[in-house]
Amino acid sequence: MAGNNGFIQARLSWILPIVQLPLAIVMLEWGRHSGVQGRFDTIFFPTPALVCKGINAPATVLMAMAFFFDRVDHAPLTILGSTLDYPLFLIGIVIQWFLVGKALDSWRSSAGGPLVWTWSRLILVGGPLALLGALSFYESLQGFLDPWRWNNRTGNLMQSVLVLLWSFVLIGTPALKLAQRLRVPK
Q: In this structure, what DSSP letter does residue 70 have?
């Protein structure tokens, strides 16, 4: 896409997934190989893994879909040695950052002001975004109320702050688009 001054502008819809996916893999692997400090009677999640899941909070929805493939009478389904939630989370990260990049590309290229969503887009896109934002807000509150949830207070609080920020974006985007829609003369 040619810019105003002839330079080629990079498309964030491609750059963000290309950057975020390896970053997420590094953080998850760093967390996987960081040692647990002590023996716990509950699960321990290392700080890099919690921060990665906070940065990519919307992608955890896809990771949760692995639950539908779990069966009590069989061993967990694995792909390349990982349980199904790991590759689903990585796919979710690519989708999440592609959509974020696409929205930012659209915002950068709109010279005539912000794009006003149609009523159908507000319902079909804004509704699920707001619902995901509300669920993210609830999850972040649970993290603040129970900071020792994963035996890692620092990591849990960092994840909760990141998820709270995502909840504001996920609720705020459709709310702003609704406000723009209501201001448009009929």
A: -
Mean pLDDT computed over 157-178 = 95
How buried is residue 137: exposed, middle or buried, by Cβ count under 10 Å (0-12/13-18/19+)? middle
Question: H helices of 9-83, where?
Answer: 12-33, 47-55, 60-64
Q: Which residue has better confidence, 57 or 4?
A: 57
Q: Hey, how many other C-beta atoms are within 10 angstroms of the C-beta on 125? A: 15
Residue 2, beta-bridge partner list = 8
Confidence class for position 118, pLDDT limits 50, 70, 90: confident
Residue 68 has φ and ψ, to the nearest 5°, of -70, -15
| Category of 118 on φ-ψ map: left (φ > 0), alpha (ψ -120 to 50) or beta | beta
